[in-house]
Amino acid sequence: MTATETPATETSSGLHADAVRALSGWRPADQDQEQLRLDYLEHLAARPDGLYRSCLPAHITASAAVVDPAAGRVLLTLHPKVGMWLQMGGHCEPGDRDLASAALREAVEESGIPDLVLLESGGTPVPAKLDRHLVRCAGKDRPENTHLDVQYIALAPAGAQALISEESLDLRWFDYDRLPELTDHSVRDLVARARQLTG
């Protein structure tokens, strides 16, 4: 879907309703995360199209830290546009039924691991944390816009083998304690959260 296309109303409204439900029912661990949660909900209340890249200047995205808890490692992708090691993730698409599905789809596509499972609470995948950051997803010559990222934890089977996709410059497993230098605080916080939740 291009930046100017509008998703089908039925699919969009279902995904929008799920995002509101998921964020309304999630209880973050600290006040900063709680403020982000409220900001995301305010965004969704104002924008029925708020989950798609066509929604500017901000839109909801979904991502997942792919971890192998048995080995104490996380899979990161070297993003070609950003030049940093990041978790798997990206934009929601019209076929995504909910935020968790969007995060899992991105994680499977970018990791090459088909049997990932999102970390759940009470039988339902739940966000691990939220992160708001500026990007240029509309193109290098376009103004920056804001990603309101909803971040999950994806569990890989012990010893899982990753397969690099065309969306990545590199794809590697890293020990929790040996993350690469080219990672930002958001990735490090997400990995720490994954470690805490799966340890």
TrEMBL record:
The answer to keyword Hydrolase applying to this record is yes
Question: What InterPro entries would the database entry show?
Answer: NUDIX_hydrolase-like_dom_sf, NUDIX_hydrolase_dom
* Pfam hit, one: NUDIX
Per UniProt, residues of the Nudix hydrolase domain are 57-196
Q: Which cofactor does it need?
A: Mg(2+)
**What Gene3D superfamilies does the annotation carry?**
Nucleoside Triphosphate Pyrophosphohydrolase
Task: Give the protein's recorded name.
Answer: NUDIX domain-containing protein
Source organism per UniProt? Kitasatospora xanthocidica
